[in-house]
Amino acid sequence: MEPFANAHGSMWAASLLMAPALLVFPPAAAPTAGIVALVAALGMVCSGVAYLLYFHLIDDIGAAPALTVTFLIPLFGTLFGWLFLDEAVGWHTLAGGAFVIAGTALVTGFSPRMLSLRSEAANV
In the chain, where are the structural domains located? Predict the structure, then answer.
């Protein structure tokens, strides 16, 4: 129940803290009911589910290993840009991605040896 409470509180806090921005930056035109419904669905479904998963992950494995998820966001953004938008990827991007993956492996305690031990145990 605690991951749900954390996610629930974070979403309400973000909503309440952003509400005064409407006074400073009013919308150019009144949004339609469809737009409001889509924005609400995007916030509740996408962000809400992501928060639930993230806080559940923190509860299961701890904060430091769960934080490594955020290290991979730029890596996947670059990958999706290359796959879907034909963005250029240079050697420096690949080197940076290798550093991110290596750092993530160090933080999580991942080792290729553990993979081979698991596959051997599964085959026995």
Answer: 1-61, 63-124
pTM for this predicted structure: 0.54
- 113: helix, strand or coil: helix
CB distance 46 to 87 below 8 Å: no
In this predicted model, what pLDDT tens digit does every residue of 51-93 receive, in sequence order? 788 888 888 888 888 888 788 888 889 999 999 999 999 999 9
Neighbouring C-beta atoms of residue 84, cutoff 10 Å: 8
3-state secondary structure 64-96: HHHHHHHHCHHHHHHHHHHHHHCCCCCHHHHHH
| The pair of three-digit structure tokens given for residue 38, joined into one six-digit string | 């889509």
Name which of 69, 65, 66, 72 is nearest 97 in CA terms.
72
Q: Please list, in sequence order, all residues whose beta carbon lies within 8 angstroms of the beta carbon of residue 64, skipping any fewer than 6 positions away.
A: 107
Find tokens 């080792």 and name the residue: 111
